Amino acid sequence: MTALAGDKRLWLGIGVSIALLALLFRSVDPAELIRAFRGIQGIWLVPAVVFTFLSYLMRAVRWKYLLSPLKQTSFPNLVSATLIGYMANNLLPARLGELVRAYVLGEQEGIGTGAVVATLVIDRLADGFTVLLLLVTAVFTLRLPPGSEAAQQGLVAGGYITLGLYLAVVVFLVLLRRNTMGTIRLLERLLRPFPGKIAEKVIPFLGAFIDGARITPHWRERLALVASSLVIWGFAVFPIHCVLKAFGLNFPIPVSLFIMVLLVFAVMVPASPGFVGTYHAACVYGLLALGVPRGMALSVAIVIHGINFFPVIVVGLACLWRENLSLSALSKKAVR
Question: CB of 128 within 8 A of CB of 166?
Answer without folding.
Answer: yes
